[in-house]
Amino acid sequence: MSLTDYYEEKRKDKAADRAESRLDRQLEREERRKDADARDEKVRRDRREAKRERDRNKDKRKAARRQAYEKILKEFDTAGALVAMVCSIVPALYFQLKALSGAGLLLIIAVCLAVMLESGAWVATVAGERAKREGRPTWPFRLAMWGCASFAAFINYSHAPGEPWLAWVLAASSYGGVFFWELRGWGRHSKAKTARSKAQRRTERARARHDRKRRRHFPKVYKRYRDIIAAHPYGTVDQEAAWANAWRDVYGDEIGVTPKVRAGRIAAAQALGTAVEQAGVSREAAAVELLLADVFRDDDGGDGPAGDPSGKGPNGSPTDGRTNAKTLGRKGKKAFRRLTGRKAPKTPGRPLTPEHIAKARKVADAFDGAVSVNKLRQAGVGGSTEYLMRLRDHVKDEGKS
Question: What pTM was estimated for this model as a whole?
Answer without folding.
Answer: 0.34
